[in-house]
Design brief:
This protein has 285 residues and is α/β, with parallel strands linked by helices. It has a domain at 5-161 and 189-215 and 259-270: 3-Layer(aba) Sandwich (Rossmann fold), CATH 3.40.50. It contains 10 helices and 10 strands. It has helices at residues 14-23, 42-50, 66-71, 73-93, 125-137, 164-173, 191-203, 220-230, 243-247, 272-284; strands at 5-9, 28-31, 56-59, 97-103, 146-150, 153-154, 178-181, 189-190, 209-211, 238-241. The chain has a 6-stranded parallel sheet, with helices on one face. A two-stranded parallel sheet has the order 6-8. The protein has a two-stranded parallel sheet with strand order 7-10. Strand 1, helix 1 (14-23) and strand 2 (28-31) form a beta-alpha-beta unit. The longest helix has 21 residues, at 73-93. Bound molecules: NADP nicotinamide-adenine-dinucleotide phosphate (NAP). One of its GO terms (biological process) is dTDP-rhamnose biosynthetic process. Keywords: NADP, Oxidoreductase.
Length: 285
């Protein structure tokens, strides 16, 4: 059987590298790392894509440092908005399918829950830049692209970048105290589930918005407690704070990021507890 060819940016990142690892026998991935194709350089992009043969372009590359975006606004927009425009236009010319990975941060977190039909209202620089990317690939006149929003992705291991789960675990394992918000919600998503959900979406492409998110929203405090419970770590290291206290002097984050999907009837996403149980097994292998 012929494999779908998927050209992708961000293949070496936290999310992309696990997707490639899990789905490498199902699809032919063609990674386009920054050193081969800097997405902020239109000429690079046009040259790299001109003669490239692929069925789907999967765009994961982004400026992802949320606090850093507040002080690096220009670079953040250059990568997330202008870079997206460069790759989208080159792919559109070739009349190929395009998938843009976006974030739950496009929502303000004021009136949850948020599903695929909810109206974005980004509140920080990173969130704004990612929403600009969404509007490029999916303009009001009707877009040709699929948008896949993910939220708080976590995985068992990845040397290059710690996700929130491994940050909590690292603190607890090293007897460092954590001060965790009790009055906000996030929707943690096991990256393995994102990969398997994408397997369906690659094979069943539609130019629509999808949320591939965990099936439970939880406060950061409860999430840290769950990590301590699952890995037998010291819960007394976990202190409490409030949302308002935590964000003082920092970029505002959506407070109640309860993200839902009314479209995902193709892959059962795990709760945070279920994800941690799988991670525990993966670690002991
Ligand atoms: N991590 C999260 O919490 C989270 C949450 C929601 C949504 N998302 C979205 O998910 C996607 C993947 O995030 P991630 O956390 O896996 O990313 P990541 O680990 O920070 O990796 C970012 C990737 O983007 C590439 N990149 C950055 N600038 C580039 C440029 N100018 N040209 C080409 N490539 C460039 C990097 O390539 P090099 O390694 O070659 O430099 C790297 O592979 C992003 O679109 C992000 O917005 C992430």
């Amino acid at each position: 059987m012929l494999m779908l060819k998927i050209a992708l940016t961000g293949a070496d990142g936290l999310v992309g590298s696990r997707i490639v690892e899990l789905l490498k026998d199902d699809f032919e991935f063609i990674p386009l790392p920054q050193k081969l194709m800097d997405i902020t350089n239109k000429e690079h992009v046009d040259n790299a894509l001109k003669n490239l043969d692929f069925n789907i372009f999967f765009h994961l590359a982004a400026f992802t440092n949320v606090p850093g975006a507040e002080t690096n606004k220009e670079l953040c927009f250059k990568i997330n908005r202008d870079g997206t425009k460069n790759v989208y236009e080159a792919v559109k010319q070739k009349q190929k399918k395009f998938i843009y990975v976006s974030t739950d941060f496009v929502f303000d977190g004021i009136s949850p829950p948020y599903n695929e039909d909810s109206l974005p209202n980004p509140i920080g620089v990173y969130a704004l830049s990612k929403y600009e990317g969404e509007k490029i690939v999916n303009p009001p006149a009707g877009g040709q692209a699929m948008i896949v929003r993910i939220a708080y992705p976590y995985r068992t291991s990845f040397e290059l970048k710690k996700d929130f789960f491994r940050t909590f675990k690292f603190y607890l394992e090293n007897n460092k105290p954590l001060s965790m918000i009790t009055d906000s919600l996030m929707t943690p998503t096991f990256i393995d589930d994102i990969a398997y959900g994408l397997k369906y979406l690659f094979n069943n492409y539609k130019p629509e918005i999808y949320h591939l998110v965990g099936s439970q929203s939880i406060s950061p405090y409860d999430a840290a407690m769950k990590v301590a419970e699952t890995f037998n770590l010291d819960k007394s290291l976990i202190g409490k704070t409030t949302y308002e206290e935590y964000i003082l002097g920092k970029a505002r984050l959506p407070q109640f990021a309860t993200i839902k999907s009314n479209k995902n009837n193709f892959w059962k996403m795990k709760t945070f507890g279920e994800g941690l149980d799988v991670i525990k097994k993966q670690i002991s292998k």
